[in-house]
Design brief:
2 copies of one chain form a homodimer. Chain A is α/β, with parallel strands linked by helices. Chain A contains 14 helices and 9 strands. Chain A folds into 2 domains: 172 residues, NAD(P)-binding Rossmann-like Domain (Rossmann fold, 3-Layer(aba) Sandwich), CATH 3.40.50; 114 residues, 6-phosphogluconate dehydrogenase C-terminal fold (Orthogonal Bundle). In chain A, 54% of the residues are buried. Bound molecules: NADP nicotinamide-adenine-dinucleotide phosphate (2 copies). Chains A, B: Its EC number is 1.3.1.12.
Amino acid sequence: MSVHFKKLALIGIGLIGSSIALAARRHGLVDTIAIATRREETLDEARALALGDIYTLDAAEAVHGADLVILCAPVGAYEALAKAIAPALEPGAILSDVGSVKAHVHKVVGPYVPPNVAFIPGHPLAGTEHSGPGAGFAELFSGRWCVLTPGPEVPQEQTDKLVGFWRAMGSNVECMDAAHHDMVLAITSHVPHLVAYNIVGTVADLEADTKSEVIKFSASGFRDFTRIAASDPVMWRDVFLTNRDAVLEMLGRFLEDLSVLQRAVRTGDGPALEEMFTRTRAIRRSIINAGQETAAADFGRPHEAVPKSEEQR
Amino acid sequence: MSVHFKKLALIGIGLIGSSIALAARRHGLVDTIAIATRREETLDEARALALGDIYTLDAAEAVHGADLVILCAPVGAYEALAKAIAPALEPGAILSDVGSVKAHVHKVVGPYVPPNVAFIPGHPLAGTEHSGPGAGFAELFSGRWCVLTPGPEVPQEQTDKLVGFWRAMGSNVECMDAAHHDMVLAITSHVPHLVAYNIVGTVADLEADTKSEVIKFSASGFRDFTRIAASDPVMWRDVFLTNRDAVLEMLGRFLEDLSVLQRAVRTGDGPALEEMFTRTRAIRRSIINAGQETAAADFGRPHEAVPKSEEQR
Ligand SMILES: NC(=O)c1ccc[n+]([C@@H]2O[C@H](COP(=O)([O-])OP(=O)(O)OC[C@H]3O[C@@H](n4cnc5c(N)ncnc54)[C@H](OP(=O)(O)O)[C@@H]3O)[C@@H](O)[C@H]2O)c1
Ligand SMILES: NC(=O)c1ccc[n+]([C@@H]2O[C@H](COP(=O)([O-])OP(=O)(O)OC[C@H]3O[C@@H](n4cnc5c(N)ncnc54)[C@H](OP(=O)(O)O)[C@@H]3O)[C@@H](O)[C@H]2O)c1
C-alpha cells in the first residue's frame, strides 16, 4: 500500500521531529510539511535546515488543513498543545505523537480530540543523546521499532495508514495497549536512564580531585552511562512525572536484585557472582540476533591509531 | 628514550594479553614473545594467530630468561601463578600485570617476588566486552590510560622502562597508590559493571513474554547496559571478590543517591528531577573534551539505510 499525506504538521521540531521531517521527505510520503515550535530561535534553526515548507510559532496554524499531525514536544507540553490545536484539527485527520510514555498521553490529550479525528498515539523506539532540530537524520528510524497505541474507537483503516507511514520510514511497527507499553518501556528505557543519571550524579558529587580522575579514567565503563545521562533533562523529567507507577514497580525489582548482589559481594560469594554474570550474557546475544544491536566490540567505537611520534619513543 | 626488551612473557593470552602481544610487536618493543596459558585450546588459538614465538602450558618455562613478565589472567589466578613462576624469574626482570584491581595484587603476588625483581603492578584502562586471544587488537591501548602502582622499593629506572613500554603502545601512563586506584576504579568501572549486570539480571528474571519484548525494544537504552554485562564472568567475579571494600563504599553512595531520586519520582518533584538531569550533562562534556570518548551520537553506532523495497511500500 502506498502511503501519502497532503500536509504533515509537526508540533515540536527537535531530534525526533526533525528526523520525521527528513525521513518523510526522503521517502516522498508528504506534499507539505508545516513546522510549529515554541521558540523563535528553534524555528529559525529549522528554517535554516530547510526541514519544512511552512514555519510558525502558532501550533493551530500549522495544524490547519493537515491530514497528519504529530506532536513532537516533551510530554509535559501535550495538554496545552492539545487544547490549542483541537479547534483547528481537520475532520478525517490523524493525530499522533512520539512521546516516550503512552497511558498519560491518552489521558491528557484524548479528551480534546474531536470525534472525527483519529487519535493514534505512537512512540518510535529510536533516539540519540542529542537534541534540537540539528540533531535529526533521516535514517534514525531505520530498523527500529515504533509502537502505536490506538484506542478501540479508531478506524482500522486510519491505523493502517499510520503504520504504513512508519514502515515507509524504515520502522518495524507494533500496536499494543498503552499501559503495556509503559511497563515494557519502564524496564527497557526509563529505569536504565534513571540509573545512569544516578551514577553520573554520584560522580558529580565526589570531591573535585576524585572527580577529575573519574573523567580521566572514564573509558573503563563509566562513559557509557554518561551518554545515556546526557539526554534532554526536560524530556526525561516529563517521562518520570508521567510514568511513575511503572517506573517505581520496575525500580523496586531492580533494587531487590541489587540487594542480593550487594550481599554476594559483601560475603565474598564467588559462585553466586559468577552465576549471575554468566546468565546475563545470553540477553545481549538475543538482542544482537534480533538485529537491535551491533556485534562490533565496544559498539564499534573508533580506536585511534597510535600517532607516529609515539612509535619510536 | 627508546624502550626495548629481549623477551616478553605473557601469562594468560586473552583480550588484554593478545592486544599487548600485537602492540608490542607492531611497535618493535621486544625481540621474543613467550606465551603461556592454562588450556591447550587457547594456546592453539594463540599459535594459529601467530601472537608469539614460544608457546607453552608451563608458565615458569615462559618466564625463563624474560626481562619483562606480564600476568594477563583473571586476578583470582594470580597467587598460584606467582608461586609457580617465582623460582624462574630472572634477576633484573620486571614483573607486572594488567589486573583490574591493584591492592589485592600487591598483597597476594608481592610476597613471592624475589628481591632482585622489580614488581610493578599495572592496569590498562582499556577493554571491550569480548574475550579470548582472538579479541585483541594492537590499537586497544591507544589514547587510553594505563595506571602503574609500583611499591616504594622499585628502582625508578625500572618504572621508567615500563612507563616507556606502555607509552610506546600509545597509552598515557600515570603512577599512583594501589588503594587509590581501587577507589577510583570502583566508581568508574566496578560499580557501573555491577549495576549493568544487575539490570540485565532483572530482565532475565521477567516472565518469558515480557522478556522477549524487552529484547525487541532494547534499543531504547537497555542495550547499552547489556554490552557492559556481556563481559567475562570470571574476570568480574574476581574483581568483586578482591575490591570488596571500595565497591561497597561506592555502591553505598550510589544507593543513597538513588533513594533521593526514587523519592523525587514518587512525589512527582519535577524541579528536583530536572535539576538532577541537567547537572549530569557537564560530566559527559568533560569526558569528550578529555579525549576519552567520541562526541558522535549514539557512540557512532551504525544506522542502517532503509532497504529499497521499503521505500515505496
Ligand atoms: N530523544 C529521544 O531519544 C526520544 C526517543 C523517542 C521519543 N522521544 C520523545 O520525543 C519527544 C521530543 O523529544 P526530542 O528528543 O525530539 O526533544 P528535543 O530535541 O529537545 O526537541 C523538543 C521540541 O519540543 C519543543 N518544546 C519543548 N517544550 C515545549 C513546550 N512547552 N511547548 C511547545 N513546544 C515545546 C521544543 O521547542 P523549542 O526549542 O522551540 O522550545 C523542540 O522543538 C518527547 O516527547 C520524547 O519523549 C524522544
Ligand atoms: N577485559 C577487559 O576489559 C580488561 C581491561 C583491563 C584489564 N583487564 C584485566 O586483564 C586480565 C585478563 O583479562 P582478559 O579480558 O584478557 O581475559 P580473557 O580474555 O578472558 O583471557 C584470560 C586469560 O587468562 C587465562 N586464565 C584464566 N584462568 C586462569 C587460571 N586459573 N590460571 C592461568 N591462566 C588462566 C586464560 O587462559 P585459558 O583460556 O587457557 O583458560 C586466558 O588466556 C584480568 O585480570 C582483567 O582484570 C581486563
